Amino acid sequence: MDTRSADAFDPPGTSWLPVSPRLASVRRGLAAALIGVPAVAAAVLLAVFAALPWALVPLLGGAALLAWAWAVVGRQVAAWGYAERDDDLLLRNGVLFRKLVVVPYGRMQFVDVTAGPLDRAAGVARVQLHTASATTDASIPGLPPAEAARLRDRLAARGEARAAGL
């Protein structure tokens, strides 16, 4: 019997846990600031130094770009997931370019939990995994702080147990 999965990004028997939808709020707020502020500034400058109808160009362009970013951020956040297995942690993300990272517990050196000001305001944190190889470092953004702390403690304990067995 062939037990291989037809989808390389969804191993059989894996229960994926999603990240918090509040991560989308943080990223959408950043997109609004990075797109909306320059669009409004350009519109004001065009209204002052050129004809008023030209001020609509950056506003409409900014609104279209912001609507596109809003949809993309929602899909990106929905694509994030992680799964704890017996010997490793799986992380997946990506909409256009999908990515699956497998981090063996025995390779973990330490686990960080970080949260910037916007993350704290939204009530989310990031779990950063540091491994023996810099190319396999991975992170899980947008976790509720309690889940981030639980995952940090669990991964650290599993990493110590696996490293002790080497």
Annotated CATH architecture of the largest domain: Roll
Radius of gyration: 21 Å
The CATH topology of the largest domain is what? Answer: PH-domain like
**Which segments are poorly predicted (pLDDT under 50) over 5 or more consecutive residues?**
none
Instruction: Report how far the terminal alpha carbons are from each other.
Output: 32 Å
Q: Taking all residues together, what is the mean pLDDT?
A: 88
Helical fraction equals: 40-55%
- The SS-based structural class is alpha+beta
> Class of the largest domain, according to the CATH hierarchy?
Mainly Beta
Overall geometry: elongated
User: Spatial order of the strands in the main sheet?
Assistant: 1-2-3-4
Contiguous helical run count: 4
Give the domain tally: 2
Sequence of secondary-structure elements? EHHEEEEHEEH
How many strand elements?
7
Largest sheet: 4 strands, antiparallel
In terms of quaternary structure, what is this?
single chain
Characterization of the model:
InterPro entries: YdbS-like_PH. This is PH domain-containing protein. Keywords: Membrane, Transmembrane, Transmembrane helix. This protein is elongated. The two termini are 32 Å apart. Strand 6 and strand 7 form a beta hairpin. It has four helices and seven strands, in the order βααββββαββα. The protein has 166 residues and is α+β, with helices and mostly antiparallel strands.
